[in-house]
Amino acid sequence: MVKEIPLVWLPAAACTGCSVSLLNTASPTIKNLMVDPVIPGVHINLRFHPTIMAASGDVALGVLEDAVQEPEGGYVLAVDGAIPTGATAGYCNMGERDGQPVTIETRFIELARKALAVLAVGTCASFGGVPAGEPNPSNCVTLKRSLEQHGIDKPLINIPGCPPHPDWFVGTVASILLNGLPSADDLDADLRPKTFYGKLIHENCPRRAFFDEGKFAKKFGEEGCLYELGCKGPITYADCPTRHWNSGTSWVIGAGSPCLGCTQPEFMSLPYYEKVTDVQLPVVGAYWQSKEAE
Amino acid sequence: MAKVTIDPITRIEGHLKIETTVEDGVVKDARSTGNLFRGIEIILRGRDPRDAQVISQRICGVCPQSHGVASALCLDSAFGLGDKIPNNARLMRNLIQGVHVAQDHVLHFYHLGALDYVDVADVAKYQGRDSELNSVKDFISRGQLGPFMPRYEGDYRLPVEVNQMAAAHYLQALDIRRTGHEAVAIFSGKIPHSVGIVPGGVTDIPTVDKITAFLWKVKKLQDFIDNVYIPDVIAVASVYSDYLEIGAGCKNLLSYGAYDLQGDDADLTRRKRLFKQGAVSAADLKLRELDMSCITEGVKYSWYEDSSSGKHPSHGETKPEYGKPEAYSWVKAPRYGGEVYEVGPLARVCASYVAGDPDITRLVDWALGELKAPKAALFSVMGRHLARAISAKVIADNLEKWLLQLKPGEPTYAEYEIPEEGAGMGLTEGARGALGHWIEIKDRKIANYQAVVPTTWNASPRDDVGTPGPMEQALIGTKVRDKDNPFELVRIVRSFDPCLACAIH
After folding, report:
1. In this complex, do B202 and A92 lie within 8 Å of one another by their Cβ atoms?
2. Which of A47, A164, A251, B397 is exposed most, by the fewest CB atoms within 10 A?
3. Has residue A292 been placed in a domain?
């Protein structure tokens, strides 16, 4: 007997990059995830995901309308994208009721109330990300903030990244299936699983030796640490240097580019190709230590 | 008169609603509504111009790579680098964008389009030994059929064995498109939202190990396109041959051309490219020269202030006014010389076809011959699928050539200074068609940034004179056999491969 764990995936103010990244999962493959018991005896039943589901229109929305009628805790809710709110909540709509468009904020809140847990997939859902960049034209908020605004207390895990590495999502889900919901100790202050976001990029960077020697690349294509070209490795928590992307093929610094800091709440607020000037180097983690001291 | 509304249209990118009025079984009117506005053009203002390449990729996670290229070309021109990009960088940009677009076409046919034609439920009757198909059979027997059920029921015409084979190809295509993304990552770090393409060139350098690894991922992709994708498109088009006759739309096609074959001409509208630039109409099938001054964006029926209507994108504006009377979409209405134009693989393949490109002519004539279809059949639902498959093959076949032209040790990047003031334009072909980015720089910051994106053209609402957009026109006049299961409508819409995050941004 295979136990079915329903998953509902709601796209908010998003670009679908998080979903496409999940398609890239190498082991298990996306086929394993969708069709096979991904953990022996447990199958993730992807009931709603607009990018791949067969149904359209009312037939598709029926799945959502049914889900919110079920007893609480029957499914896991994953959301990519931030939530437009206030006077601009109508900047993101999905489907209609009585001839009126339903905002994604309404859909999210209805689904979140009945969910077992909420997964914020990507930096937009976790921290506001791209649409919440200054001046935040659609008043986008994080899932955490949206839940607070509606007085909903629900287990929430942030899986940031623009997009997140598929392993970060799959690993987080597998962990829930094997061990249940994470304890507070398993997550950092930004609700990220420490398993994947526990170390700074800078700590494990293969160009770290150049940094320690003071050998900095002055233009793209040069050998050396990319700090002066704007690398956010010293302030960014993620395991990219050891995990590598796209089936372990390469990663951002492997292609000679500075880290853009995409797993951080600061992703949209720092210029990508300017040096992070207030880092006290060479002490690893000094940036955050100085922030805490403030 | 009955309203048939489909909201959301799934198996596309983003939030799209289609509203039709059906009378006596025929679509009398159609409205296409884009349902998500983020305002990325507004967010870009005031930032370091170099950030545009990073943030504009985030317009879309399905087609980020083409935004990266359009933005880099736009910044190259604003920084005075239009004719100074090193050859290695030009080739690496072609490779990164090309392999991404080719895998995107595979994704569209199998994972976005196919479930409209293929009955996956037939795998329940499978009796063979393919372990992948047997695992799907087990999945069906457990009775939890998400995401393949529920669905529209009725018009699935393929024989059981063909449905089973197509399901196997759906699964195989998941691996192939992942392999395509791995190839992107070789030269561009990661994908979606890769980092390798920057103004001035690329960040990475070509090395023999990377060249070899890329080559064999491309060969795998080529093998699939030649031996699975193209035969499958022909097979589906043969059985659903009535779809060679419906969904024609506006019959005007526009291509910006893509994949630079030379780097020393700063004029992107004249530069030698693999796919040709130009406009083609079904009426005479002749290529007309691309004139970028002809483009305007209307917003009378879009949720933006009327004062911003009719502008050229080089000084375009994005001023939201949600709820504006008569408006019904976040998509603007771009027009070329005031006329409605469709963009996409059909447009770029047709531009090169009518220009007499030998490879593309051979492929188009062969495909039409296999289907015993006239040239007019290109302007149809299946015509778009065929053109997309041909686009994939032409790109994949050229990747190997570009790869072997790379010269390890030679430059990949040209240095520059950000100008105090400047303007730029970047043009390319994304998977879904003609893509343009425009920038204006003041005080070394972005003063204005505008993108006119493939689905902005295709999913556009009515323009200021009330003429419906290409997708709306393709729907109007269509016979709908069963309005509870309106296969015809979703098949027409999906043949455009709409991308709404792109269209509105």
Report:
1. no
2. B397
3. no
CA-CA distance, A41 to A252, in Å (whole number)? Answer: 37
Does residue A294 lie within any of the structural domains? no
Average per-residue pLDDT for chain A? 95
pLDDT of residue B103: 98
A185 and A217 fall within a common domain? no
Task: Report the alpha-carbon distance of residue B19 to residue B345 in Å, rounded.
Answer: 25
Q: Closest chain A residue to B493 measured between Cα atoms?
A: A56
**Contact status of A138 with chain B (Cβ, < 8 Å):** yes
Q: Which residue in A56, A106, A107, A257 has the most chain B C-beta atoms within 10 A of its own C-beta, making it the best mutation to test that interface?
A: A56
Task: Tell whether A293 is covered by a domain.
Answer: no
A28 preceded by a cis bond (ω within 30 of 0): yes
Q: What range does the domain containing A222 cover? A: 199-287
A63 lies within 8 A of chain B by CB:
yes
Is pLDDT of A282 > 60?
A: no
Tell me if A89 is assigned to some domain.
yes
CB distance A246–B188 less than 8 Å? no
Count of domains observed in chain A: 2
Quick one: A94 and A175 in the same domain?
yes
pLDDT tens digits for range A74-115: 999 999 999 999 999 999 999 999 989 999 999 999 999 999
CA dist., res. B15 & res. B21, Å (int): 20
CATH of the domain at A144: 3.40.50.700
- Partnered with residue B481 across adjacent β-strands are none
Q: For residue A290, is pLDDT > 90?
A: no
* Mean pLDDT, residues A151-167 taken together: 98
- What is the predicted pLDDT for the residue at B142? 92
- Count of CB pairs separated by less than 8 Å, A with B: 269
CB atoms A130 and B40 under 8 Å: yes
Q: Quick check: B11 and A51 CB within 8 A?
A: yes
The rounded distance, in Å, linking the Cα atoms of A275 and A280 is 12
Q: Which of B64, B147, B171 sits opposite A31 (nearest CB)?
A: B171
Name which of A46, A53, A255 is nearest B188 (Cβ-Cβ): A255
pTM of the model: 0.97
A59 touches chain B (CB under 8 A): yes
Looking at the structure, do residues A115 and A242 belong to the same domain, yes or no? Answer: no
Q: How far is B365 from chain A (nearest CA, A)?
A: 33
Across the range A146-173, mean pLDDT stands at 98
A128 and A169 in a single domain? The answer is yes
With an 8 Å Cβ cutoff, is A232 touching chain B?
Answer: no
Nearest to B189 among A50, A163, A255 (CB): A255
Record: contact B139-A35, CB cut-off 8 A: yes
List the single residue in B13, B42, B147 with the smallest CB-CB distance to A137.
B42
Indicate whether A280 pLDDT > 70. no
Tell me, what's the ipTM? 0.97
Contact B203 A221 (CB under 8 A): yes
Let me know whether A210 and A104 are in one domain: no
| pLDDT value at residue B466 | 98
Could you say which of B9, B50, B330 has the minimum Cβ distance to residue A273? B50
- Domain B2-504 in CATH 1.10.645.10? The answer is yes
The pLDDT tens digits of the residues spanning B390-442 come to 999 999 999 999 999 999 999 999 999 999 999 999 999 999 999 999 999 99
